[in-house]
Structure formats: C-alpha cells, structure tokens
Amino acid sequence: MALGYKARKRWALVILVVGLPLYVVVALNVVALFDRPSFLVELAVYIGLGFCWILPFKFIFKGVGQADPDARD
Questions:
Q1: How far apart are CA 66 and CA 73, in angstroms?
Q2: Strand, coil or helix: 5
Q3: How much is the pTM?
Q4: Is 11:53 a contact under the CB 8 Å cutoff?
Q5: Tens-digit pLDDT profile for the chain (73 aa)?
Q6: CA-to-CA dists, residue 1 to 4, 34, 42, 70, angstroms
Q7: What's the 3-state SS for 11-67?
Q8: Is residue 73 within 8 Å of 11, Cβ to Cβ?
Q9: Which of 33, 42, 54, 63 gives 20 to 30 Å between its CA and that of 24?
Q10: Residue 19 contacts by C-beta under 8 Å, 6 or more apart in sequence?
C-alpha cells in the first residue's frame, strides 16, 4: 500500500523531529567508542551513519517538498 502525499509529509516530519535527534545521539556514541579518532575517520563515520539512517526512509522523503499532486488548482 502506497502512502499518500499528506501521509508521507506527516511521516517525514515525525522522522525528522524524532529520528534525527536519535541519530545524533547514536552517531556521537559511535564516534566516542574510538579513542581520539582523526578528523577524516570521524567525518567518514558521520557520513556513513547518515547514509545508513536515511536510506530506509528515502521513499517517504521523495517528492515531499513539491506541490501536492492531488490538490485542485
């Protein structure tokens, strides 16, 4: 079952409000596991975790910033 435009927009907002802070906490804890990582290692971990976080939600965010295709003019 495909989500409608309004449902995807609501879920995107929930994911950003709840999921993004959780991602930040997890990313900081993963980087803290390393003993003083270099800047490049730290950057690679943040980028890698960012891709792993957003890939499952890609279908929800796709097209949310555009106008509602079902709206009447």
A1: 14
A2: helix
A3: 0.70
A4: no
A5: 578 888 888 999 999 999 889 888 988 888 888 888 789 988 888 888 888 888 888 888 887 877 777 777 6
A6: 9, 42, 39, 17
A7: HHHHHHHHHHHHHHHHHHHHHHHCCCCCHHHHHHHHHHHHHHHHHHHHHHHCCCCCC
A8: no
A9: 63
A10: 53, 57
